[in-house]
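Hi U.,

Before I forget, here's the chain from the pilot set. I'm dumping it here mostly so it's searchable later in email.
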Amino acid sequence: MASLDFYCMSGSPPCRTVSMVAAAIGVELNKKFVNLDADEHLKPEFLKMNPEHTVPTVDDNGFYLWESRAIIGYLVDQYAKDDTLYPKDAKKRALVNQRLFFDLSTLYGAFSDYYYPVMFYGAQKFDPEKFKKLEQAFEFLNTFLEGKEWVAGASMTIADYTIVSSVSAADAVGFGYKRYPNVHAWFERAKKAIKSYDELYHPDAMMFKKWYDEAGAGDKK
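Structure:
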């Protein structure tokens, strides 16, 4: 079994994505938790690996990589027994990539733009215009899933994993994703397809609720 050093933090949706995909393809992650509050990500040894000092970061025998969507693509290409999760066919892969980029720039992008200023950066209230963008992102996802079981093609791919992380974080802080019936049905299906989701990954997602509550975010809407 392949083993990589995995620099991460509990509760992080991108870190959760990497954990889920690695488990799905049988890659062992040697987890090294990074305390951002103690500036461990700014230490010289970490900056040598990742000048952007972000988590998740992986160290595969001296090959350093960060950005969760890049990491999961690499893991499948390098270590998976087949290309089911990240097809090599150009058109199939292009669709998966489009959904990965949609998550990064639109879905998770809108989620973080709306929630993070209050939860982590001291903003005193939420921005209703940013909430509209988050709702629009979920509307797009709902449209993508019309008549489909998975977000990118006929079977589950790495795009489903990264979007599961985004939707689970939104769910944890009370965003009403069930208003979008295709998203709701897909999320239930995906949680069943991911081995030990409830035991291993739901508690990690609920870290967001803890951070949300500690920031008093519920009183700032």
